[in-house]
Amino acid sequence: MNLELSKKQFRRLLDMVYIGNWILNSTRGDQRFADYDEVESLVFGQAVLEGMPSLAELYQGEIVPSRAFVEGGIHEAIVEYENNVFFDILAEDLARRDMDDAPIDESNYAELTSRIDAYIAEFEEHGTDNILVDIDN
Question: How far is CA 76 from the centre of its chain?
């Protein structure tokens, strides 16, 4: 298969491959999806051939994203995504809890979205500062 990309497009592809593999494998420990690691290695190996050798390095016999690539800002994009998703998921979970985890349909969808919006507004204004848990000893 041949795919023609500009240098800029290929550089964006490196970011996307890294982010995708990070999402799939970063929490898997020894049970990583090896086929995704293999694709990442192939794509980053191509970076060397395309005049971007600083973006890949050899580690334990495999071509991997270089330390310079990993520390170059890609994780800020991942963190921003995780923060947004965290608050969205938390808001929906809390809204559903408030509604006693009732199945959502046309009759209560507006209530759910209203509750989610209220939680999101709270998180935007105060983050998690007002979330407290009572622990009975």
Answer: 10
- Provide the H-helix boundaries in the chain: 7-25, 34-49, 67-69, 75-98, 109-126
Domain assignment of residue 113, yes or no: yes
d(CA 137, CA 123): 29
Same domain, 17 and 37: yes
Mean pLDDT of the region 1-29: 96
127 phi/psi in degrees, rounded to 5: 60, -135
Q: Which of 65, 86, 108 is the last residue of a domain?
A: 65
Q: Note whether 52 and 83 are same-domain residues.
A: no
Q: How many domains does the chain have?
A: 2
For residue 40, the enclosing domain spans 7-65
Instruction: Please count the other Cβ atoms lying within 10 Å of the Cβ belonging to residue 73.
Output: 9
Rounded to two decimals, the pTM is 0.78
137 pLDDT above the threshold of 70: no
Q: How far apart are CA 64 and CA 21, in angstroms?
A: 11
